[in-house]
Amino acid sequence: MTETERQAALEGIAGEVAACTGCRLHAGRTRAVPGEGSASSEVVFVGEGPGEQEDRQGRPFVGASGQLLGDLIGSLGWGRPDVFITNVVKCRPPGNRDPEPDEIAACAPYLRRQLEALDPSVVVTVGKHSLNAFRPGERIGRVHGTTTPADPATGAGNALVFSMYHPAFALYQGSNRKTLFEDMTGLPGALVAARARRGPGDATRVAPAASVPTDALAGAPVTLPAAVAPVTPLASAGVIDRVPSPAPQAPEPGDQLTLF
Ligand code: SF4
After folding, report:
1. Ligand 1 pocket residues where CB is under 6 Å
2. How far apart are the first and last CA of the chain?
């Protein structure tokens, strides 16, 4: 699928979401929140559902949690426009309650179709309901910061699933902020590993400006996991083949990791 085709598919899904009456959540929404970001990104963040600000603006993660999610993404030297951000349910549950299982089931085809269009390398689950959609039966306290291959039934058959706490985890208790940022440092390694699993790259994707991962807490370069870095040449790992590269080189700890 070309980037233009991906974009068209995502816009088509967004149009359907805006008019959807597939579950009771449609009755209370101001605006549906289908998701936003780069149609050519390798990384998709999947949260739980829109909150009050998201419902007003029709955009995902624009409240306090969204600010922190942006900081977490920024800690890797990436920006929100470099990734795609969406939710398990596209309409706000009243009073910010948890989405009900039947609401999640009703909305699931939209997420699956978005992932089929995006074909990401990494799906980042943000919070427990997103975790349950991709790693059923797991507990976030046990698997945060870890990866597992995605079930093809999710629509992200070529992806690794990387799980993190919801940013609200740190908003309610500031001491959890360190855990979130520490977990996020594992995302570049997950992307490298995911590229290695995919094989040859997709020439239809384009590279934004190179970025240098940094640790927002320490201001230090993000260190690629030792278990991944020596065995995964970036330029031969798949998607990096989409940009000219003089010679394949294995990443060293602290290397640049460009997000496509
Ligand atoms: S939450 Fe999903 S299924 Fe329910 S009305 Fe909104 S778009 Fe439709």
Report:
1. 17, 20-23, 25-26, 32, 89-91, 103, 106-107
2. 15
Q: Please tell me the distance between residue 241's alpha carbon and the centre of ligand 1 in angstroms.
A: 38
Cα angle: 12, vertex 32, 183; to 5 degrees? 95
Instruction: Tell me the fold of 3-242.
Output: Uracil-DNA Glycosylase, subunit E (3.40.470)
Task: For residue 31, give the DSSP letter.
Answer: S
Atom of ligand 1 nearest to the CA of 17: 7
Percent of the chain at pLDDT > 70 equals 77
The domain ranges of the chain are 3-242
Place of tokens 């699956």: 112
The pTM assigned to this predicted structure is 0.82
Q: Name the residue at shortest CA distance from atom 4 of ligand 1.
A: 23
CA distance 165 to 140: 7
pLDDT digits (tens, 9 = 90+) for 105-149: 999 999 999 999 999 999 999 999 999 999 999 999 999 999 999
**Cα 198 to chain center, whole Å?**
17
